[in-house]
User: Fold these one by one.
Assistant:
Number 1:
Amino acid sequence: MENGFVSGFAAIIGRPNVGKSTLLNRFLGRKLAIVSDKPQTTRNRIVGVYHGPEAQVVFLDTPGVHKPRHRLGEYMVSVAKDAWSEVDCILFVVDAAAGIGGGDQFIAEQIREVGTPIILAVNKCDLLKPHQVMETLAKAPELGDFHEIFPISAETGYNVPELLSAIINLMPQGPRYFPEGMLTDRPEEFVIAELIREQVLHHTREEVPHSVAVVIESFEEGMTEGVVYIRARIHVERKSHRGIILGQKGSRIKEIGTAARKEIEALLSSRVYLDLYVSTSEGWRNNPTFLQRFGYH
């Protein structure tokens, strides 16, 4: 163990769409977790590792806590709750622009008995005027007794370094759990599937994004020097959703593929040939077999 070095785990929790994944990416200084304006974008627990000269913080970005309507939703909420009991710090994120509401109260009640230090991050303050931020901060203590409260903007980086310092101060002395430079414990295929799903979210509307799962079927290097070949299958619940993702004469799937390829090339620092397919898997969000096959178990 390095003398004076601290390390530990911090869970990022909150309602859907409050900016948890954007905040994780801001902490890491690069993109790991996908983001969109659609609620329930994050489905799995994403591990992101912050490396500092005197500290290592393992962040757990969790799905938004919500009232589940299917087995996938139940899985997502259980993932979030499991993270609460195994960390050194809980980072509770609320949306200042949307206001503190019943969903935030529900989460506050859930974590109150955990006994772990809780820092409240009031996010999206860049969308409010200064007096509105102050009004929101005045209401924040109603949620509970917090170790500290920070007004922040994950989008612009406002007050994020100060928030990160407060989290590090709660970490115990310990070893490096991950080698320097290692960003996540997730395999590349997982991150690539998420980047493809992110582009589906960006290019579709309404119910379609929630019914999408992406599975990487092949990942091959070396067939052509400097090029990675990736074959991925996008699963949807209804035939009508398949048509929406494909678009007229395949126009939308081409847009999705082009945008996803750019993100994947940035991740791999390599040229990528991306082959996308779309299949209908009826009712997969309530089917244990599909959920396990797609990695939600």
Number 2:
Amino acid sequence: MGYIAARGGTAAILNAEVLVEHYRSRGGTPPLTLDQIQHQLRHAVGRAMHEGALYAPHLAALAVKQAEGDSIEASFLLRAYRATLPRVMATLPAHGRLMQCARRISAAFRDIPGGQLLGPSTDYQIRLLRATLARESDDDIARIATLVEGFAATHADGGIGHFPKVVDHLRAHQMVVPVPTATDATEPFDITRQALQFPCPRSARLQALAQADTGSLLTYAYSSVRGYGDAHPTLAELRYGHLPIAVAHPVDGSAVWIGELEATECETVSKAHSVRAGDAAPRFHLGYGFTYGQGEVKAISMAILDSVLNQVRSGGLSGESGPAADEEFVLLHSDGIEASGFTAHYKLPHYVTFEADLQVLERAKRHAATNAGGRLGRALAAAFANAAADEEDGDA
């Protein structure tokens, strides 16, 4: 593909940048603060973090502001910033069972240890516009905060929010596949330092899915559920809350807690059974999804795709057909930043390539005209020959 360097136009480019800032700040309203964006647009901030592959709420709020709410642009800005950061050390594996849950539900069982915790969710509301939000005041926010503080005071023992995992219960009864042990000592694949090679290990697949575009994962997962596959999972557990993170002490190797992440974790089990080599009894397949923030739709979509691709790899009974069953297709076309970057590059000058296309078009036209003239001459000659033959037949 050929390009031509764009020369000149520096003043126009600088003015275009000024106009971007003008369009963002016009209207006479006060500038949005990063705290406002971080707390009141938390889903936009969370999406920027998990698609940008960097947990930094304040920087994600800055990216959302700079991108004027464009989710892909915000994640692009955050991922580009991440590429400049040094890597100090790796954290220890984080276990979802240690999460301080603000929300925890299961669609597999009605009664689960610890009970269902609905938490913050709009799943149970009618989708109607709330006109009262247009007149929201500080008093309304204070009233809601008082209600929540009263609820927290009645559960001040600190025990609420910690629950056992539903999948652990299923695994104890040998209903789902066991945790792999052969690769426990293997270093996880790092897609930021190694190019994907297919078939790729599950650690690489989960990384790619975790930073993929939410809409893309939703599309692929929905296609596999709707009819372009045979995936019909059941939500074993969905939990959202704060996950503690630890690193190993440099001297004695003990765990040192350094903070926590706001995250969503999802685990699904498939309806189709699978038989592992050497196992006498069939078991459910497991799908896993994880996102920063409260990204429930993406976590569920990720878990569905993980389950489908696992079953394809192991020869399971579902998910063997449709676009979502092609690991290379899914992983290479679900990154919103890659896709938007390549699509947006068509706005750059393509003068050389288009000039070549014009020349090819002109040659094709001349070739078509020449062939059309030759075909016309041959057709007329054939018509005259047929007419002469008819006359000779008539004279005879």
Number 3:
Amino acid sequence: MKLVTFTHDGRSRVGIVAGDAVVDLAAAAPELPTEMVALLEAGPDALQTASAAVDAGPRLALADVQLEAPIARPPKFLAVGLNYADHVAESGIDTPAHPTIFNKQSTCVTGPTDPIHLPRVSHVLDYEGELGFVIGRRCRHVSRDDAADVIAGYTIVNDVTVRDWQLRIPTWTVGKSFDTHGPIGPWIVTADEIPDPHQLRLRTWVNDELRQDSNTKELIFDCYTLVEHLSTAFTLEPGDVIATGTPSGVGIAMKPPKLLVAGDVVRIEVEGIGQIENPVIDEPAETARVE
């Protein structure tokens, strides 16, 4: 299944993509939660109910709905740095012995077609196309052999990065967490439809220029190893999003660097999942607010 969060007639809820349409689960299976984290928390039986509702449920044309980030506020949004050998090489550092984990604040999450803001405080803005996976079961101390059982599905992440803010201190969280700097989507493809998440082609374009072209088989620490590593330290929960790292081809490493500017469009495609496409705009004045 392709699980989506979408907005139609001013109301957001979850659905399932079927061809060029969305099955509205709020109408097809009203007993189910209408928010993605709650749906995942409801467990395998809820997902089976959702799947069974596809054929009979009312449909909306994909063109008539707004696709949102499938999980608007992940309980945890974790990411992995330096997890492709070619990206390590272009960064000029040693291959890490252990996964380099950092947080992206959940308020950075935005949808698969929403704009990315070029911050007013920096113009050193970069893209990072990544495979993401979503936790489906509350778990701790999961072995690598059992890790596939706790992954609900897979999605696409752009780990947008403000490079000068990332690198001016040892921890990366602030430079990775500006508002709008976590595009996710366009949906969650359930794990049963991705037989091997470590054999997926990943490509990133800026405008029409192909910048990244790799395969998840090149991951240094794969999805299952990451589940084992993370769950050793803390509980993973339904709706947690883990971005697995980016391959070579980021803008800052090019000679000369090719950083994002207003007017650019970043498109990331992962085999078996789909694509996200986000325009870059100057940060709007109205982001300065107190509520």
Number 4:
Amino acid sequence: MQPNQYRDVRLEKLEKLKALGVEAWPRKAHRSHGIADLAATYADAEAWTNEKLEALGQTVSVMGRILTIREMGKSVFAHLTENGEKLQAFFRMNDLAEPGWDMLKLLDMGDFIQVTGPLMRTKTGELSVRVKEVRFLSKALLPLPEKWHGLQDKEQRYRQRYLDLISNPDVLKTFQTRSRIVSAVRRYMEDQGYLEVETPMMQPIPGGATARPFTTHHNALDMDLYLRIAPELYLKRLIVGGFEKVFEINRNFRNEGLSVRHNPEFTMMEMYEAGSDLRDMMALTENLLSRVAREVMGSEQLPWGEQTISYAAPFRRLTMKDAIAEHGALDRALLDDDTQIRALAQAVHVEDAATKSAGMLLGDLFEHYAEKQLIQPTFITDYPLELSPLTKTLEGDEAFVDRFELFIGGMELANAYSELNDPVDQMARFQAQMDEREAGNDEAMLLDQDFITSLEHGFPPTGGEGIGIDRMVMLLTNSQSIRDVILFPLMRPTKPSEAAEPTE
């Protein structure tokens, strides 16, 4: 049958349910236990035999979606699911009060029901509810994906995530784990004395990162606003205002392409601590990841594809030049000569290698030779000034800045600075960014005069960092695409003829 035919059949059953006096969509379920609680409490079949369950004499009421249903004479077996766990419901004709048995004939996979009765084990040892009372909760008018193969098409899985969660228990588990990861991150930050704050998501000037923003318009004020590309400049204002340690787990928006590692809307945590520097951010970061891995995943040694990543602190530290030399098998001395850097970049066909600065070319060489090779957690330090307009320079070397990026699994996870707190220097760097915009770089930063004004009121030495939450979840759950850890990733619109349809 076609989907519309399935729907018509179910609508007929709905009318029959109403004729029996059954309310198809009641206001509330009345349950005594969750299926997951029962599954966990009575999981041990040897400790909880059928005889012990009968002696316990416990009557339970649970609700769930019907995943399977099969009739065997005057008995019916159904599997109910809730929160990723399953429980069998065992119906016998003589056990049910009216209109129980007649109602069972009208049930379909996907319907929600509530069952009440004592716990038991079947002859195969499966924990079940011996149903004495059944109550209808919701009629599913469309069928679930084919029960044996689940929802396999990735495009449909992302577009119809609700079906993906129903059909693929591992997907549901990933997103449950994501929630626990975010909770563990928040607890860790609070344990370190950080306060969680909220800053604007619509900003008159997009700042804090080099990225192309999304633009919107406020009608009442007749002004353009931008969805934030980062909360950085607002969080720094809070340090100026007297906060010592702040963090925000936030949504950022960058008008960029889509890939297995990029989504235009993504989740990041940014934190700032007055009086600290880059080394403090390193210690905080490696201890955070080690603790979250242990607490949520149960181990500091976790799979990533065919490899194993160790989240045990401390993590390795490499300068950008050392990483290029090591993974490119190059003479380290070549990277101290601007002419040699340009020649190396031209040899690997870096775009615009003849006109870019040596610092920009170092970034290109790092991406070419080293980035994807950094599987184990590695802090890359000593970035060229051109790549870091908001960062303090290294002591004794004005061409490089006190910055790290943390790479794990061949991708950037975190970015941290010893923050620039000199307003005169900051103004000069903003001006350099504006010059880049005039030269055609749409992602260069705009001048934020109010931020400069805040720095002129005094900004203490501060360590700051941003950590990609989506990528952290990818790494800890061994998910190879960012779309697998974002519940509703951005998708290209489909034509009506291409719209995914449910199948059975």
